[in-house]
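Schema walk-through. Below, the input block comes first and the output block second. Nothing else is stored per chain. Lengths vary across the set, and this one has 267 residues.
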Amino acid sequence: MKKENYLFFVIPISQLLMLLGSLTEKKALGFWGWGGLLLSVAADFLLLSILLWSSRREKLEQEFRELSYLQKTERMRNGMLEEKQKEILALRSSFEKRLKAIQGKLEEGESEAAVREMELFQADLEEVSPPAYCQNAVVNAVLAEKDKELQKLHVQAVMELLVPRGLKINPLYLCSIFSNLLDNALEALAELPEAERRLELDAGIKGVYLFVRIRNTASLSHAMRKRRKGRGYGTQILRETAEACGGSYQAGYEKGWYTAAVMVKVE
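--- output ---
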């Protein structure tokens, strides 16, 4: 239960004290007194039902967000695989032709031309290899998708990620952390002139915790802006996710840079 919900108990406790005080002093409540007491008890039940409904709604919203992240991760993975499969099929269709061309050059004594052709083909094969930002497949899927948006905005990005596979953390939480950190950064970067768009992302394991830090240029007005309609929930989700994983979330703005850091337990 959230700390603010404990304020609910102040009302019935105060009513109980008033009733005990009246009984102790042997004063009759009368018709209006009892009527007021009954109405206040009814109000207590109404407030309690609202509190329970609000708690249930928050739980459903959290479950919906987790399901959304799961679907989002799957879409990103499937999109990457489908795109790479198409590229590989295209290469396979031309493989025999290129191989015959190389063999023909070798038979004709054009060894240097054959070597150049083989180098070009090797380069084409390397281009269709899936991007590897780190060893973790979930993080790779998120970064591959977000990197496309960074490139569209021509952001100068530097990433140093040491996130291993097999972390003992819900993949949904992992996807949520990197997705929301990057979404928040992209929103701030889009408001800046192209020449000022810079981003730094680093992550690694320290002890039993995963530390993720992102720094991006941002305007002061954006950093100080309150939540907007339909936006601004990323920070709240990050804080809730960090707390759910026994960690913490911190953020701040200084000298044109917005920094956000997440620490979560992964063992």
